[in-house]
Write a structure and sequence with these properties.
This protein is an alpha+beta fold. The chain has a domain of about 220 residues: Muramoyl-pentapeptide Carboxypeptidase, domain 2 (2-Layer Sandwich). About 35% of the residues lie in helices and about 15% in strands. It has eight helices and 13 strands. The protein has a four-stranded mixed beta sheet. The chain has a three-stranded antiparallel beta sheet with strand order 9-8-10. A two-stranded antiparallel ribbon has the order 1-2. A hairpin with a 2-residue loop joins strand 1 and strand 2. Helix 6 packs across helix 7. The chain is globular. It starts with a helix and ends in a 47-residue tail after the last strand. The structure holds zinc ion. The site of zinc ion has 6 residues, from strand 7. InterPro entries: Peptidase_M74 (IPR005073), TAT_signal (IPR006311), Zn_M74/Hedgehog-like (IPR009045). This is Exported murein endopeptidase. GO terms for molecular function: metal ion binding; metallopeptidase activity; serine-type endopeptidase activity.
C-alpha cells in the first residue's frame, strides 16, 4: 500500500504519540480479513451452515480504518433506530384509529379540563374534544365538531354499534359546538358541547344502504324529500336510538325528531319485540319541541350534564330546548326552564 505510509506519517505528525503507536501496530499486523499465510480459516468457515458469531458490520470490528468505519457503524445504527421509530409510530397510529372507532379519545383536544358552562342555549365550553371522521362516522363538510368528551365518545360508540349490527354504515354528523362554545350560527343551542345533529340513515329503492353527504329530509311516510326512491331506514335509525339509550356512559337526554318519524321508530321497535322498558325510554327521549326546527332531516341529540359538572352546567335551555335558528332573542332573557322538555324518565309531553 504505497500511499498509506506518507498519509499515515502526516497523521502521525498531527495526532500525537498515541496515534503513532496505533499506526505502527496496524502496519506491523496483517490486514483484517486477509489472513497471513498458514493461518486457520475463520470459525464460521470451519463449521458450514452455522451463523457467524459476529454479525456486526466490519466497521465495528476493525480499528484499522478508525474514523471512517465508526461513521459507517453510527450510520447503520441510526438507520436501525429510525426504522424502529417508524414502526412504533405506525403502531401508535393504528392504536389511535382503533381507539377512535371504539369511542376512545381524540388527539385534537383542548388541554384544559372539560367543562360545560351554562345552559345549552347560553353557555360556553372548555376542554372540548373534536369529533373526526372514522370508518363508521363521517363529519359533514364544514361542520363545527367540538364537544364534551362524553358526547364525542357517545357518537363514536353508537355509530360503531350500528355498523356492527347492520354493516356498511356511516353516521353522518353535522354540528356539535364551536371549540369554546357560545353562539353558533344556525342554532339556538349547541353552545356547551352537549348537542349534536346527526343525519338519518337512508336506504335506496331496493332497500340498500345509501350513503349521502348531506342531511336528507323525510315526509311522514318515510319517503325522502328531493331524493326519489330513497327511504327512511327504520332498522338502522332504530339501532342508533337503541345504541344511544343503552350506552350507560352516554347519558342521552333528548333525541329531537318529528312526531311522524318518532312514531315510525317506535312501531319498528314494537314489531321487533324490543323490551317495553327500552321502548318507553325511547318514547320519552324522542320528542319534537314546540317552536323548534322541524327535525325531519336529522336527530338532535343532547346529553345530560355530567355529574362532575353540576353547579356550572345547566341542564335545560333557558327558554326553549330547540336548536332553532329563528328563536326570538327576547326568549333568551327568561331564566325559566323550558316547559316543553320532559325528564328522560318522565312522560313525554307530545
Ligand atoms: Zn341541533
Amino acid at each position: 500500500m504505497p500511499l498509506l505510509r506518507p498519509l499515515s506519517r502526516r497523521c502521525l505528525a498531527s495526532r500525537g504519540p498515541l496515534a503513532a503507536l496505533l499506526l505502527a501496530l496496524s502496519l506491523a499486523a496483517p490486514a483484517q480479513g486477509a489472513p497471513a499465510a498458514g493461518a486457520q480459516p475463520a470459525a464460521a468457515e470451519q463449521q458450514p451452515g452455522k451463523r457467524p458469531q459476529n454479525k456486526r458490520p466490519a466497521a465495528r470490528r476493525s480499528s484499522a480504518d478508525g474514523k471512517g468505519e465508526t461513521r459507517a457503524a453510527r450510520s447503520a445504527r441510526a438507520k436501525e433506530k429510525a426504522k424502529e421509530r417508524a414502526g412504533k409510530k405506525r403502531a401508535a397510529r393504528r392504536d389511535e384509529a382503533s381507539r377512535a372507532e371504539r369511542g376512545g379519545t381524540d388527539a385534537g383536544a383542548d388541554e384544559r379540563k372539560p367543562l360545560s358552562k351554562g345552559a345549552p342555549n347560553r353557555g360556553r365550553l372548555t376542554g372540548a374534544v373534536r369529533l373526526r371522521s372514522s370508518r363508521h362516522l363521517k363529519t359533514r363538510e364544514g361542520a363545527r365538531t367540538w364537544g364534551l368528551p362524553v358526547l364525542v365518545k357517545t357518537l363514536r360508540r353508537a355509530a360503531f354499534q350500528v355498523a356492527k349490527k347492520h354493516g356498511d354504515s356511516a353516521l353522518l354528523v353535522g354540528d356539535l359546538s364551536a371549540r369554546a362554545g357560545g353562539a353558533l350560527d344556525g342554532h339556538n343551542s349547541h353552545q356547551t358541547g352537549r348537542d349534536a345533529d346527526v343525519g338519518f340513515y337512508v336506504v335506496n329503492s331496493k332497500g340498500k344502504n345509501l350513503r349521502t353527504d348531506r342531511f336528507v329530509a323525510f315526509d311522514d311516510e318515510g319517503n325522502a324529500i328531493g331524493l326519489p326512491g330513497a327511504r327512511f331506514d327504520d332498522a338502522r335509525n332504530w339501532a342508533l336510538v337503541q345504541a344511544l339509550l343503552e350506552d350507560r356512559q352516554a347519558g342521552v337526554k333528548y333525541l329531537f325528531v318529528t312526531d311522524a318519524l318518532r312514531a315510525r321508530l317506535l312501531a319498528h321497535a314494537a314489531k321487533k319485540r324490543v323490551p317495553a322498558d327500552l321502548r318507553a325510554r325511547a318514547a320519552a327521549a324522542m320528542m319534537s319541541p314546540r317552536d323548534a326546527d322541524l327535525h325531519n332531516d336529522h336527530f338532535h341529540i343532547r346529553v345530560m350534564c355530567p355529574p362532575s359538572m353540576r353547579g356550572a352546567c345547566i341542564e335545560e335551555s333557558l327558554a326553549r330546548p330547540a336548536c332553532a335558528a329563528d328563536e326570538p332573542k327576547k326568549a333568551l332573557d327568561s331564566a325559566a326552564p323550558a316547559a316543553t322538555e320532559p325528564d328522560i324518565y318522565g312522560v313525554p309531553s307530545r
